[in-house]
Amino acid sequence: MKSKRYKNLLKEEKDLSSKSIKDLLPKVKTNCTTKFDESIDLNLQINNKQKKGEVNIRTVVNMPSGTGKKIIVAVLCDEGLKASAKKAGADIVGGDDLIEKIKAEEINFEKLICTPKMMIALSKLGKILGPKGLMPNPKLGTVTENIEEAVKNAKSGQVEIKNDKDGNIGLTIGKKSFTDDKILSNFKAIIETLEKEKTNNSFKGEMIKNIYLTSTMGISYKLKLDKNF
């Protein structure tokens, strides 16, 4: 059921035609009438149906302005790398002890990074980590010898881009408290990353079918994708 606050927003908004993100950002922020710092969210739908089968995007983007969200990062590594992981800002660092906790489904982290050597033991826990989207992946930079860099990227606002079976992608690109320039820099990074994926996948035609901008408790607006942002 829609709240009275949300219904009032709909009444006030007469023109829901697509506009550029620069034009819509002030409006989206105005609609953030709750007491908390609402997220500014981007929802995309890609044309993932291709003649040679479906295109599944799975990559990462480093948000230059961060996301405004603190990520709890766990690192699975050998004893010699634990100090580097802690120095980089990892919240949880362990070896066999961390593996045992995962086996017991004691999972109190949002991202897991591990070394290639430790991945051998971790691969047996796919049924636990996979459904939660926590299984480390070399392509996403979460299976690496450079633990320090991986932790810093995760902490500074690295976000995974992944579409579902219908081609939908949902991302947070900032908070209401962010300046417009900070949100726009994150938006630009996402679009540029998708453009690279389009080339890497030999994508035919336009990749982005629809794109919408909204806030946590606000109205969804259709964006007109202007590459000169």
Give a description of the structure.
The chain is an alpha+beta fold and 229 residues long. It folds into 2 domains: 17-67 and 158-222, Ribosomal protein L1/L10, rRNA-binding domain (Ribulose 1,5 Bisphosphate Carboxylase/Oxygenase, 2-Layer Sandwich); 73-156, 3-Layer(aba) Sandwich (Rossmann fold), CATH 3.40.50. It has helices at 4-12, 21-30, 79-88, 96-103, 116-122, 126-129, 147-156, 180-200, and strands at 39-46, 49-50, 53-54, 58-62, 73-76, 92-94, 111-114, 158-162, 168-175, 208-215, 221-222. The strands form 4 sheets. It has a 4-stranded antiparallel beta sheet with strand order 9-1-10-11, with helices on one face.
Topology:
Layout (H helix, E strand, L loop, with lengths): L3 H9 L8 H10 L8 E8 L2 E2 L2 E2 L3 E5 L10 E4 L2 H10 L3 E3 L1 H8 L7 E4 L1 H7 L3 H4 L17 H10 L1 E5 L5 E8 L4 H21 L7 E8 L5 E2 L7
Parallel strand pairs: 5-6, 5-7
Antiparallel strand pairs: 1-9, 1-10, 2-3, 4-8, 10-11
Helix pairs in contact: 3-7
Determine the number of helices (DSSP H or I, runs of at least 4 residues): 8
What about the largest sheet?
Answer: 4 strands, antiparallel
Ends apart, CA distance between termini: 36 Å
* Overall geometry: globular
Radius of gyration: 20 Å
Q: SSE string, helix = H, strand = E?
A: HHEEEEEHEHEHHHEEHEE
Strand order of the largest sheet: 9-1-10-11
Low-confidence stretches: none
Q: How many strand segments?
A: 11
CATH architecture of the largest domain: 2-Layer Sandwich
Beta-strand content: 15-25%
The CATH topology of the largest domain comes to Ribulose 1,5 Bisphosphate Carboxylase/Oxygenase
For CATH, the homologous superfamily of the largest domain is named as Ribosomal protein L1/L10, rRNA-binding domain
Q: Which CATH class of the largest domain is shown?
A: Alpha Beta
Structural class label: alpha+beta
As a percent range, the share of helical residues equals: 25-40%
Mean pLDDT across every amino acid position: 88
Q: Number of domains in the coordinates?
A: 2
